[in-house]
Description:
Layout: E1 4-9, H1 12-16, H2 23-35, E2 38-46, H3 54-61, H4 64-78, E3 84-92, H5 96-113, E4 120-127, E5 136-144, H6 150-163, E6 172-175
Parallel strand pairs: 1-2
Antiparallel strand pairs: 3-5, 3-6, 4-5
Helix pairs in contact: 2-3
Amino acid sequence: AKKYDLIAHIQTDSLINMADFSSAEKLFAQITALKKLLNSNGKLILQTYNWENPAIEISAHGDYPTFFQTESNQRKLLNYPPFGLLVKLTLKGKSEAKVKIEAETLFSQLTTKLPNYPTIQLLGPYQSIFWQKNPSYHIILKYNLESYNLESRNKAIEKIASLLEKGSKKYQIEVEPEGIQ
Length: 181
């Protein structure tokens, strides 16, 4: 494999500033992959306005144990995977105004059911940043898991499924989405 003396990661901030719980992980992976392309005396330049950001700083140093601990603590605090199960509901349509109203209506309907489900939290509705042809809105359901194993995951999926309309064509359901956008 070819090795390089100089590699630049342009606009590092654009990745770390994405509204996605896995953005720091993606940044760490990108920087690690770029470092593998360097000669032993090669240099990696990170273009950033926020060089004191912990994720950028830890990634630049390649300190995986610190990165893992920091990321784990943050995810636990916010009930993100693996400490919580995420389910993303996506509503799409041709009219942005109509999709927005449908998303707000669904969010309200789900909110009225939540007192019976204290381990579930709702986020949204919010418009997708990356819609192409048709506008889309998302709602995230977060289920706080006491431990991440198959049994507790399936129990969480069953509880969330009981909140949703069976066979509904109004929205797409994605269990454990790769990201929240």
